[in-house]
User: Which sequence fits this backbone?
């Protein structure tokens, strides 16, 4: 389970994917919030409560890789797991080089996502202080 007050955030413009991922993650006892766009997440007050970010790459407006860069530039250290239909080795390499803990191509196995989440929430993944700026 996540630390009280910390939430797993899902950002994906695909409504069905957001709902399915939310159900899966909530079934494991985690608190979950969903957003249809990177801009919606950035505008929310919940960003600072993010324990783990599950992020699509291809979205209108700010895409997932751009959001990852922006959060990094602002000093956020949030474990990020990409879930995407984009099976592109350059995008994968870029995401992982920038610190993503996972890059799952849709459709993926539920266990793969849950394994990534559990790895992201380990204290050594970050200092377990979600969304803090350093």
Assistant:
């Amino acid at each position: 389970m996540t630390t009280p007050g910390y939430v797993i955030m899902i950002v994906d413009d695909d409504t069905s994917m957001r709902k399915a991922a939310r159900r899966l993650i909530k079934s494991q006892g985690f608190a979950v919030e969903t957003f249809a766009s990177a801009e919606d997440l950035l505008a929310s007050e919940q960003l600072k409560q993010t324990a783990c970010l599950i992020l699509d790459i291809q979205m209108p407006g700010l895409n997932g890789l751009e959001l990852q860069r922006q959060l990094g530039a602002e000093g956020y250290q949030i474990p990020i797991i990409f879930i995407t239909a984009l099976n592109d080795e350059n995008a994968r390499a870029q995401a992982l080089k920038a610190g993503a803990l996972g890059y799952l191509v849709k459709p993926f196995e539920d266990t793969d996502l849950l394994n990534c989440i559990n790895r992201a929430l380990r204290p050594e993944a970050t200092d377990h202080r979600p969304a803090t700026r350093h």
User: Anything to note?
Assistant: Residues 102 and 116 are 6 Å apart (CA to CA).
